[in-house]
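Morning run. Coffee first, then this:
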Amino acid sequence: MNLAFSLWWLFAAIFGILLLASSTGQILACVKGGDNPTIQNLNARINAWWLMSLVLVLAFVVGRTGSILLFYVVSFAALREFASLVSSRRADYWVLVACFYLVLPLQYYFVWASWYGMFAVFIPVYGFLLLPVLAGLSGDPKHFLNRASHIQWSVMISVYCISHVPFLLNLNIAGYEHNILLVIFLVAVVQASDVLQYIWGKLLGRHKIAPVLSPSKTVEGFVGGVLSATGVAAALWWITPFTPWQAALIGLLICLMGFAGGLVMSAMKRDFGVKDWGKMIKGHGGMLDRVDSICFAAPVYFHLVRYFWAG
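And here it is:
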């Protein structure tokens, strides 16, 4: 059985689990009532899992350039959500134009061109300096530091961090030709961690980690979810250049960084006074709610693989 055929069986298993989860969620909504907060949260998470699974399949089908464009769209949607929070002052207009029409396209051009040097420093160095300069040229000092930091954070999270996912496709690893599987491993483990933390938290959760920031996160859910997802990572070693124990250790790190990312993004949402990123834009799907864990996990995972495995 070749690798591609095995992967289609893996995708079939994932979608089978999602179909079961969706059916369960709809039955619970009928029995418990669709306005039950817990059921609503469960179904929202299932929908997010569907979206990320479809992203995985699309990335596998469309190839390198298509995958880069796919994550460009993800970054664009996430940046749009962040931009909706920036103080709507005329002085910020050219800064936002630079974010969407200069910084975002250039960062993904560096991904497509496999230009690691510029990819790694463009936003943390040049973007970090350029955006406040544009804000300063507007001549409006009101809430300047607050506005500048919002924009810098939005670009770092939405563009820089997420762009590490498609740059995995450019790594040159001896004896390994299917780099898209590195992306699948990352997203699958992060999503499994989120799912399993939620399940363990509902089953055994008693002690909340950060009640104000994220009431659903518990110590029991965190430990059970991270350990279970680490087992999932070890079981997926065969799609990576890692040995089983290496896959387990990398999976553990991914889970820890994913948890940290979710916690930080929850803190941001509470600071802005919103529960879900998607509610900030009418009719928008809430991209940041789907990729909050990946934002922190992707850069660490990328640099770890690049340093130890890539030539």
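Confidence is low (pLDDT under 50) at residues 280-285. Good start to the day.
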